[in-house]
Amino acid sequence: MHATSKRPSPAVYRRRRLAALVLLVVIVLIVVWAVSCATSSGRNGGSEADSAAQTSQTSEPQSTGSADPTSDDAAKSESAASATPSADPGSVPTCDPGELSVSVKTEKGQYSFSQQPVFVYEVSNITSAPCSANVGTSQQELVVGSGPAEIWKSTPCIANPSDAMNVLEPGKPLTGTVSWDLSMNDGSTCSKDRHASVTGTYWVQATIVGRSSEQYSFVMQ
Length: 221
Hints:
- Helices cover 25% and strands 29% of the residues.
- With 221 residues, it is of the alpha+beta class.
């Protein structure tokens, strides 16, 4: 006599299908949850990176944009203008001398006779509109004096005077430097036979584009 296997009842089949369906739903939910967590983590990471980048940018020192006109390289040249034309000088009106302000000073308050004083001049447009001016060495004169006497002029010592048309913007002064080798001249020739050697107070005055500065005092010792 052969044994016969008993087939599961329909109720058992229903329970098995229900269990399989529940398991499938659970798996789907787990997958959805995992994807959601990964997406959220990516967004938070990106936000933190952006925040870090912004912090890095804002904490970086601001550049000044401007070069130092009193550097050693500038002092070695007879005259070095530091401004760069922002427009074609021919496209703006020419500056009248009364529209400009000129000042001059020394890099240091006092010098020894083993040093060459370096004069720093500045030309400013004191109007509200740009104007152009020739600020080359052909239009510059620096005078050094002691008391009422003038002892040195820069003009006869400029071998090849040159023109340099620049656009002067309001509020953006042009600066340059001129060094003095302590020689003394009468203003007509660049004599190197005599040199300043008396300790005391000296002064310098700059005339550029027909506009003169105030006298600026410095000490030689």
